[in-house]
Specification:
Elements lengths: L1 E6 L5 E5 L4 H10 L7 E4 L5 H13 L2 E6 L2 E5 L7 E2 L1 H4 L9 H8 L1 E5 L12 H9 L3 E5 L2 E5 L8 E3 L5 H13 L3 E5 L5 H12 L3 E3 L5 E5 L11 E3 L4 H13 L3 E5 L7 H10 L3 E3 L3 E4 L9 E3 L11 H8 L4 E6 L9 H7 L3 E5 L2 E6 L7 E3 L3 H11 L5 E5 L2 H6 L3 H7 L3 E6 L1
Parallel strand pairs: 2-15, 3-14, 6-7, 10-11, 18-19, 22-23
Antiparallel strand pairs: 1-23, 1-24, 3-5, 4-5, 7-9, 8-9, 11-13, 12-13, 15-17, 16-17, 19-21, 20-21
Helix pairs in contact: 1-2, 1-7, 4-6, 5-6, 6-7, 8-10, 8-12, 10-12
Length: 422
């Protein structure tokens, strides 16, 4: 098993390119199940989750052809299986995204209950209730969601009790195959959802309310879609935020290219509040060293609020800010597992319920630490950049799920980081 060895007290400089967004690529890959013709996806991140999802499509009978590290073609007309097996689905929660497309197009599917990061309950009951409202008969049996319809799904009013990104995406794809109009109330507004909506619209689907919390969509009554032949995945806003935190925690000047700053309003505002100056263009961001880094408060919430996927990275940054920072996690009840590992490095963090109080500035020391989920892994990498001595970060397969060439990108900025074998 691989681990990362990082020598601390690094000063970074230079520029790197941001990869495509994993969380946008995954629903777009699922959407290809609805296409009449071959679809080419470009700007795909070269990460494990993408490869896992393509393995799932192959299992279903789709033909995939990787043209290069970031471009793959998908042919779904060869699809001959509507059962998403446990062996694949257990590796990644986003596999649930095939539920809506398979049920909508074929009227029957079996999808294993998903696995993935252990950051708390992310139940699929919201997906199931919405599909039942659209006429699906669903039972859970042997660890599988078994779903069927008599004559296809029918349009309905779906009012989510809680905002759900994958739930919104699943129902959007199911609704594209349904008969009549579906209205989604309390829909997620994330840029990844917006891209999915725009691709559906480009496919000829009548859809309104894109980017709002209320979306209307008219389905094709189980007819395949004319998806665009070439779809480019949007830049990864969480990867962008993570590398901005790398510049911030080391108090360095770095530039990030191939990104979309309009998707990062909450992150950029918080960095400015802490004391950082930035130059921002349409597709790049440069962050400069701060004279003073002030403590801050943040609460995670749905887009366009502060993203839960950046909470751990900002906690690492808080250890180097002057004063007492407060971070409230409002979306997932078990997303502070990185706290004990940061404490092993010398961080002064106190937990009370869903609130963490971080006292800075802390002098951190190298240690052996263990990654517990994808974003917690990146927080440990950030902290390791500024510790005294050497840190070994274990179980980095979590990192490989969502960050492309992380050690190569950081090395290019001047970090002393290497991948080693246990």
């Amino acid at each position: 098993m691989d681990f990362l060895k990082i020598i601390g007290e690094s000063k970074l400089q230079g520029s790197i390119g941001i990869s495509g967004a994993k969380n946008s690529a995954l629903p777009l890959i699922a959407l290809s199940l609805l296409s009449k013709e071959k679809v080419t996806l470009s700007n795909l991140p070269d990460v494990v989750d993408i490869k896992t999802f393509f393995s799932l499509l192959n299992m279903l009978g789709c033909e995939t052809n990787q043209l290069d590290r970031h471009t793959t073609t998908i042919v779904s007309k060869t699809l001959n299986n509507t059962k998403a097996n446990y062996d694949i689905v257990r590796k990644m929660r986003a596999s649930i995204l095939v539920l809506g497309p398979l049920l909508g197009r074929f009227g029957y599917c079996e999808v294993s209950l998903p696995g993935g990061c252990a950051i708390g309950a992310r139940p699929v009951d919201l997906h199931i209730k919405a599909l039942q409202k659209m006429g699906a008969k669903i039972q859970i049996q042997g660890g599988y969601i078994i779903a069927k319809t008599k004559n296809g799904l029918r349009g309905s009013v779906i009012n989510f009790d809680k905002i759900t990104v994958t739930g919104t995406e699943n129902i959007l794809m199911a609704a594209a195959m349904a008969k009549g109009k579906t209205q989604i109330i309390n829909a997620a507004k994330e840029p990844e959802v917006v891209q999915l909506c725009k691709v559906l619209k480009a496919s000829g689907i009548e859809i309104s309310g894109i980017g709002s919390d209320e979306i209307e969509i008219y389905g094709t009554d189980m007819q395949p879609l004319n998806l665009p032949t070439n779809i480019k995945v949007i830049p990864d806003r969480i990867e962008t935020g993570t590398y901005l935190c790398a510049g911030a925690i080391t108090n360095s000047q770095i530039t990030l290219h191939h990104t979309n700053p309009t998707h990062l309003t909450a992150i950029l505002s918080k960095l400015e509040e802490i004391g950082f100056k930035m130059d921002i263009s349409s597709d790049s961001i440069t962050i400069y060293p701060a004279k003073n880094r002030q403590a801050f408060e943040l609460s995670t919430t749905e887009y366009p609020g502060f993203p839960t996927d950046m909470q751990a990275q900002f906690m690492a940054l808080a250890t180097q800010c002057d004063g007492s920072s407060i971070i409230q996690e409002r979306l997932f009840e078990n997303r502070f597992m990185h706290v004990s590992e940061l404490q092993r490095m010398g961080a002064n963090i106190k937990l009370k319920g869903n609130t963490a109080t971080i006292q800075g500035k802390s002098e951190l020391f190298g240690a052996d630490v263990m990654a517990t989920d994808l974003r917690a892994s990146s927080a440990l990498v950030l902290a390791a950049l500024v510790v005294k001595g050497k840190s070994n970060i274990h179980r980095i397969y979590h990192l490989d799920r969502g960050y492309e060439n992380l050690e190569a990108k950081l090395t290019g900025l001047g970090a002393k980081i290497s991948r080693e074998k246990e």
